[in-house]
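Box 3.1. Reading complex inputs
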Amino acid sequence: MSFFSDLWDEIVNIFSSAPATSPVVPCAGCGALTPEQAQQWFDHFKSRTDIPWNYPNDCCYNRAEVMDQEMSAAGVQAGKVWNYAPDISHPLRVDTPNDPDGFVEWGYHVAPTVPVMVNGVTTPMVLDPSIASGPVTPQQWKDMQSQPGSQLVLTDATPYYRAPDGRVTATPDAAQIARVFDQHRADRAANWAGR
Amino acid sequence: MIGNRLLRLLFVLLGMIQMSSVPAAPLRPADPMRGPDFVMEKVATWVEHPGADSQLMLADGSRWRLDTHRADYTVQATFIEQALKSDQCLLVSGNKANGIIDRLGAVRSLAVQQVGAQEADGLVTVIFHGPPSVYRVRMSRPGAAQDLALLRHSVASGAFFDKPDLLVGIDTRAKEVVAVKPLARATEAASGATGLRQAK
């Protein structure tokens, strides 16, 4: 029994992408993270299997919310960045293997931001494992969505949903957030036929 | 001690070799919903029959069957379980005449942010408050004109993410809106649903 339990621990240690310790160590006195800490947060979220990263069609507002909640609880000054398509005829577009058509089109997209200190300057960096492989600047994140005319808006972590006109919605309870994830996991499964 | 660690490592390496020799079967895109009927109602009863068709009755009295042998049976049944658990309507794509279910989906309470003009291919683009994806209404679908009127009314009504005014059925595979109902009317119509689940 002990052999298998030790073996399991060994396997977990070898393959886990989760950080060995909490990446929550904000820069003393400035509240900013180091680039390494930002990457650790990114890796931590990407390894969370309860978040449907493989359903880019929907869920960004729910994903951003749970990431911000966890970072805020850990003392990180997390915020959100919103990217809005200029109009309905010119949506944001991201190529992705996670959609049967090979791409998704959005009216808007949202992801969490964290302050990162680089060369003595604090810059917001976007954590969005649904489309990026690591922390990126808001401009890099915008460029990934292939719509030069889109509009970036940075906010604090508060809005659960923010319309292009600035109207916002308060965060629902944890049960509702979990239901949204469940629904999107089901949608994702239904979009792909069996093996 | 060292021998024990080496043994564990060997065990893990053998497992990796074994796993890598089994090619991962690629998923293929599901087919879009075929209809021809698209119904949004609460679940009245859901009776699973292992080895035979499972029986679904909706609050409007319509009866449907889901083939337990289909490869995506579990995926489809998940939507029924979620509709029962959350006491929400279910989207059924299928043939009312013979009760055969084509596909199932979730029904969403939504408000419309923007509706585009009709394009040359007969599609009208819609963006909702909340879901980021761009969806389309295929105007050749029966009932599409009425659905479009409801979608346009939602924009004008000032409905919002936390104050939705529509129940919307979306084929997430095709990214098409396939059914629309005013939320108030749908809620009244479904008030008699029992949400009873049975299993045999």
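In summary: Chain B has one domain: 37-199.
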